[in-house]
């Protein structure tokens, strides 16, 4: 059998390396979902949810885009660093889980600040660093930094315009939206496309969040 027919990574890395690499992506996806059900779901229910969702949802999603035999991969669709397999799948799963599990307690809905701002900043820095490490090409690294930094700055500017002051939480939120938006196409888009992604990745989530907060949605 021709080895090249079994995929571009066949034999290029040890199997243990590829298994660990994919396990890390799967773990990150579950952490993102956990943020949506934090304070809503019983821990034992979460322990049951994790293996079921990984087996019947994430596995098929990742295979469809990252395997050369996946139907999305065969269509020529590219997910450079996990925008579809990680962010989209975790976002849909988190929103669906939050809807069916129900709202948080009233005290958490009224005020739910981070427990430790310094740890939040440390985690944000690790996320940003991990984003550029994951993007292992020069164009991808440049686009990742540019999109993330611009998205962060735009979020801060909107906070200053509408609330008269910036916030550390807003800085981190802007950074994360920038990382998420550039992830699927970091190594394949030009600078002008990155600029558009910067603007929309910041403004749309900001206005959406403000709209939801002001309406006091039951999902909060």
Automatic annotation (TrEMBL):
Xref: PROSITE patterns: AMMONIUM_TRANSP
TM stretches of this protein: 19-38, 45-64, 84-102, 114-131, 137-161, 168-189
Gene3D superfamilies: Ammonium transporter AmtB like domains
Record GO terms (molecular function): ammonium channel activity
Pfam families hit by this protein: Ammonium_transp
Gene Ontology, cellular component aspect: plasma membrane
Keywords from the UniProt entry: Ammonia transport, Membrane, Transmembrane, Transmembrane helix, Transport
Membrane topology classification: Multi-pass membrane protein
Location (main, coarse): membrane
Subcellular location: Membrane
Ammonium transporter AmtB-like domain location: 10-196
Family: Belongs to the ammonia transporter channel (TC 1.A.11.2) family.
Name of the molecule in the record: Ammonium transporter
Organism: Vigna unguiculata (Cowpea)
